[in-house]
Structure formats: structure tokens, C-alpha cells
Amino acid sequence: MQICLVGYMTAGKSTLGELLAQKMELPFADLDQRIADEAQISVHEYIRTKGELSFRKLEREVLHRELGAENVLALGGGTPCYYDNMDVALEQSFVVYLQWSIRTLVSRIENELSSRPLFDGVNKSDLPEFVAKHVFDRRPYYEKAHHIVFCDGKTEEQICAEIRTACKKHQV
Fold first, then answer.
1. Using the 8-state DSSP alphabet, how is residue 75 labeled?
2. What is the CA radius of gyration of the chain?
3. Residue 135 and residue 84 in contact, taking contact as beta carbons nearer than 8 Å
4. What's the rounded Cα separation, in Å, for the pair 84 and 104?
5. H or E, element range at 98
6. Which residues pair with 99 in a beta bridge?
7. What CATH code would you report for 2-169?
8. Is this model's pTM higher than 0.85 or not?
9. Which residues are paired to 29 by β-bridges?
10. Where on the phi/psi map is residue 106: left (φ > 0), alpha (ψ -120 to 50), or beta?
């Protein structure tokens, strides 16, 4: 069984993915980390030096290799929105969308602005509007997921429990 976690940046895909994997006694993998390992530089640096198009091509190649494994796999925030990535993930794994309010995402992103290349040049006062538009653009891809978890107001334990219940319900 493979569970893919999707959602906007800072949605907790990696943090929740590690906890979920532990609870389900599965390995955990982070797509961005796999890409960084292969490229031998951070995703942030890769995008800055080689551009987003080059990154998205490499991301697709690595994703296709990773799909179908027995694990919990955290995808990058934009991964589902490019090429056929979401459709292939839906065919080969159980996809869960970690959905948060714009307010929560903005408050999390504010703490990580310097490490997020997408926000280079975005004024902090424009962040809520920028994030809202970006999430709006990505939502059609995210909402294709087999299951959506509305995360605001829930603990990590509650979110993991909901995902585990959804897996059982969908006989994953």
C-alpha cells in the first residue's frame, strides 16, 4: 500500500507523513528529498539555479520511479499540478489532500519565507492574497484526491487517525 500526501506548502505533508508512516508501520519518503538526493543540491537551490521547468521535469521522473512503493510518500506542493502527475498518483496510490485555511497556511509560511523560492520578491503584506490565489489555482488538482482532510482545529494524531480510517474505508 502507498499513501501519497498532497497539499499546499507548509500543509505538513512531511511531518504528518512521518507520523502516519510510523503508525501504519510503513516506510516514509519525501519526494523533494529524493529529488535533492538525486540532484545533489536542495530543491530551493535547484529551482534558483536551473529554473522551475527543469525542476518539474526531474520531479516527474522521480515521482514515476517512487509511485507504487509500499510507503507513505509526501509530494511537493506543486507536484500534482504538472504533467499527468496527479492522475498517475491516483492510479498507483491512495492520495490524501491535507487542506488548511488560507489564514493557517499564511501564518506557517511567514515563518519560512526565506526557504521558499516561490515567495522570492513577494511582499509580506501581499502574502495572504498571493497564497489565496495560488491555492485557488491548485485546488482543482488537490481536490481530485481520494480523500480530503480538513485539518484546521485538528491535532496531528486526529489527522492521522482520519487518514487511517479513510484507508480502511477505501480498502487500501
1. P
2. 15
3. no
4. 29
5. strand 94-99
6. 150
7. 3.40.50.300
8. yes
9. 73
10. alpha
Residues at the binding site for ATP are: 10-15, 116
Annotated binding site for Mg(2+): 14
Domain ranges of the chain: 2-169
Show binding-site residues for substrate.
Answer: 32, 56, 77, 138
Instruction: Write the pLDDT tens digit of every residue in 107-157.
Output: 999 877 777 777 877 888 999 999 999 999 999 999 999 999 999 999 999
* pLDDT recorded at residue 74: 98
List all residues 6 or more positions away from 98 whose beta carbon is below 8 Å from its beta carbon. 5, 6, 7, 11, 12, 13, 16, 149, 151, 159
Can you read off the three cell numbers belonging to residue 37?
538526493
Which residues belong to the annotated binding site? 10-15, 32, 56, 77, 116, 138
Work out whether the CA dihedral 124, 129, 135, 137 comes out positive or negative: negative
CA atoms within 13 A on the CB side of 132: 7
